[in-house]
Amino acid sequence: MVAKKGPNKKPIVSNVLVNKSEGECISGAGKFFYPTGATYEGDWVVVAEVDEGVPATPPPPPGGGAPPHPPLEQMRPNRQRHGKGVYIDGNYQYNGEWKYDKMHGQGCFKYESGASYDGQWNNNVYTGLGTYMWPNGAKYVGGWLENKMHGDGMYKDKDGNSWTGQFFNGIGPGLIMEIQ
């Protein structure tokens, strides 16, 4: 049974499987329909306290562009995305792991522009190893720290030229160009 969208400020949930877990949490799986038109299908958990001060929005793409609007930062329910799931808001999509309503773990985010990031997340931030693809075909594969290319990595431009080496805080001083 699928619930219809209504004027209320909370997401509507359908196809719910509820599992009782230890402590004060209840978890399950189902599909959320947000008043904005966004959907989430996957695992969730109900928690006793909600951190409403941190919006659940992805970082902006490197080089500019606007990220999607946060789904419901002023009206976040106690039921939070937690586990594996797919969140779709217009032409933005995240498919991956969640931890208490934040992208956390392994996941792939596709931007409206056609750009994408596939890699590790820590509390809605690119952190760890990942691959960012620009719409023009350029890509970066390597380490990330706080949404910036950081650590060992390889950048390949749209023409196929590659640079490898250490990136620091989003830039690559001393990179080596690979001759093909």
From TrEMBL:
Region (Disordered): 52-81
Residues that span the membrane, as ranges: none
A single Gene Ontology CC term: membrane
Pfam families named in the record: MORN
InterPro entries, A to Z: MORN, MORN_repeat_protein
Biased composition range(s): Pro residues: 56-71
Domain of life according to the entry: Eukaryota
Keywords linked to the UniProt accession: Repeat
Keyword Signal among record annotations: no
Name of the protein in question: Uncharacterized protein
Organism per entry: Physcomitrium patens (Spreading-leaved earth moss)
Gene: LOC112284955
